[in-house]
Amino acid sequence: MTRTAMQRQPAPEERLASVSDEALVERTLAGDAGAFDQIVARYKGRVFSYACRMLGDPETAAETAQDVFMRAYRYLENFRGDSKFSTWFYTIVTTTCMNASKYHGLRARNRDERYFESEEGSVSDPIDRVPSDTYAPEKLAARGEIRGAVRDAIQDIPEIYRQVIVLKDVNDFSYEEIARILECELGTVKSRLARARQMMRERLIAAGVLGPECD
């Protein structure tokens, strides 16, 4: 047996792990079922997290996440490649969540920490994106309370503002990508985001997390 033959060959899922989303789409349309499984593995945590923030209920979020992937698979041939796959995909994510919100009429407020965790671990929150001026023990001890206040504030603002702040500050989409996802003008995205951040600030001040003098 040659040395090359003795080397471990990567499993199919390992080989697909480094393949781009767009290439996975091509493989899926060519009949490679494992390629779409890789897409699901890549996005399931983020989709569940987004659905939780938009719907406020973990069971409905889980059902909605499944619906998202079913719809994406069904309409995959409609992806033309004129934008990134993630942009096209999140159009389906946002639309499916909006439909679920209307159908269930959910504005749940009694949430817990597990709502915002994926099977792969915790998903980042906007508060984790804000640099702290200190890592003193008392500040670290307060982070759990701060995260809870941020989550409450996100859930409390209207849906059209919640969409943009989650897409921008949690999922790191650009203004242009968000405009494509939400099918609105670039200026609309910017104005909604500015308003969303202002509403968040007001709620965090009311919760005692931020001081009125904070920018």
Summary tags:
215 residues; mainly alpha; Rna Polymerase Sigma Factor, Chain: A; Arc Repressor Mutant, subunit A; 2 domains; two-stranded antiparallel sheet; elongated; disordered N terminus
How many helical stretches?
A: 11
The major pleated sheet works out as:
2 strands, antiparallel
Number of strands: 2
With strands numbered from the N-terminus, the spatial order across the biggest sheet is 1-2
CATH hierarchy: architecture of the largest domain: Orthogonal Bundle
Distance between the termini: 67 Å
C-alpha-based Rg, rounded: 20 Å
The level 1 CATH classification of the largest domain is: Mainly Alpha
Outline type: elongated
> Please, what is the oligomeric state?
single chain
Beta-strand proportion: under 5%
CATH superfamily of the largest domain: RNA polymerase sigma factor, region 2, helix turn helix motif
SSE arrangement, N to C = HHHHHHEEHHHHH
> Which runs of at least 5 residues are low in confidence (pLDDT < 50)?
1-10, 106-141
**Average pLDDT, all residues:** 80
Number of domains: 2
CATH fold field value of the largest domain: Rna Polymerase Sigma Factor, Chain: A
| Structural category | mainly alpha
Percent helix, as a range, is 55-70%
Structure description:
The protein is built from eleven helices and two strands, in the order H-H-H-H-H-H-E-E-H-H-H-H-H. By secondary structure, it is an all-alpha fold. It has two domains: about 110 residues, Rna Polymerase Sigma Factor, Chain: A; about 90 residues, Arc Repressor Mutant, subunit A (Orthogonal Bundle). The chain has a two-stranded antiparallel sheet with strand order 1-2. The N terminus is likely disordered.
